[in-house]
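Q: I'm teaching a short session on how sequence maps to structure, and I want students to see two examples side by side rather than one. Could you give me a first protein with its sequence written out and its structure tokens following it? Keep the formatting plain so it prints cleanly on a handout.
A: Of course. Example one:
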Amino acid sequence: GGHTKKVANYIAKATNGDVMELKPVQEYTEADLDYNNKDSRTTRERDDVSLRDIPLVKDKADNWEGYDTVFIGYPIWWGIAAWPVNNFVKDNDFSGKTVIPFATSSSSGMGQSGTLLEEMANGGTWQSGQRFSSGASSSTVREWAAGLGL
């Protein structure tokens, strides 16, 4: 739905940062994301963990070594981070970086999503993160980012 991308762009503007979109090689269609359909792609992936190894078009950021702070954003799927973010987390070395997860959802909270990603990660100092509603405003995100003291 573009909600996470919108919040990522707000964060980038507030922190003078860069944005890297994580795109699955096989992109998700609206039908794939139909949580009410027991045969949709995401429902099948939810039910069979072996299907959650989602290859990304690009899984490494340019100039990765140059970043001290990394925000990782994702929508919440069934109470956890959308699994396409998993390979990015697994494939990058976060040693020496502060990692701040953020999530978007209509109603679900962060849950253990950030903790589960931290467990997959190679290093880094992971913060607790923040959940934003699907309709989060620029000012809400900007205020949160300013409060981080970066």
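Q: Perfect. Now a second example for contrast.
A: Example two:
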Amino acid sequence: MKQSYLTAAFQKTAEERFPAQAEALKAAFDEKMRALRAENTGATKEKLRHLEGQIMPGIAAYEALQTVMPKDEALRTVHGYVEQRARKQKKAFLALMRIPGLYRSVPKIFCTETPKLFGETAGFAATEIQTGGGVWRIDMTKCPYHDACVQHDCPELCTCFCDSDDITYDGLHPKLYWHRTKTLGRGGDCCDFCLRLR
């Protein structure tokens, strides 16, 4: 499986900021990844995409970094990794939004793709509020990012992933409105996603 951007970023931090402890940090990261993979041996292909891509390396990096820095600094460091990737994704989406009229299709794309990428087989559960007529509104009531972070005693880590959504999708186009009032990772009872044409 392709190496996660989080794994690469963590390794860079270990090598550049903590050269004397770099090998020990990488060993701690690898050990946590082995344990997390063992816990998730029965995960579906759809869920593994999220586990391997972000959830497990995020938890492993956060835990390993706490051995060489305070917890709040470790959280900021992992948040920085996630934020940097989100800003790259946003840049790519903004380039696409220059295609005349493409913005009109975005809510429909979300309606179609969300059940495939963030459906029950991937560990999510959602209630559809409105998915048509230029509107995508769902309440995400279960999220594997939140579940895993809570299970591994780092619920605060989930906010990194919540924030990445807002960074990526807010302000994509003047005629597109992205909105959430709460997320599971920020203590809400659901993530109330809304993306609609203005």
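Q: What should students look for in example two?
A: Point them to this: The chain has seven helices and four strands. Also worth mentioning: The chain has a mean pLDDT of 97.
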